[in-house]
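By convention, the token line describes the chain's fold. To illustrate:
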Amino acid sequence: FVGLFDINQKVTLAVIKWLQIDIHNDVQIGLERIIGKPEPVMCQPADEQEEHPALLLQTDNVTQANTKIILTEKGIFSPNRKIQINGQSTPYSILANGLIDSSLDYEIFNYNLNLGS
């Protein structure tokens, strides 16, 4: 991941999709921007003892206002998996919903609040 810093926008994340080095050693990279303002948290799946770093991706987009998205390391996502979120506010529980994107290193998925916890 790389952080994108722009004076006119909030900090966002991007994934490096490709990298090219030409014969003059000039480097070009292709980036895919990850939508949402990243908020660092720790997550702990209900069936594990270990906490893992994660990013909640908050969006200002009206059409995605009810969509809650999280980025985690590979292996955290499983449909309907209960996950404890620990951040700057009171800990709460979520249920993993649908996988949005996945690579060798990370998973991005949406979730619902687990109101039964």
User: Anything to note?
Assistant: The first strand starts at residue 2 and ends at 4. The radius of gyration is 16 Å. The CA atoms of residues 49 and 116 lie 21 Å apart.
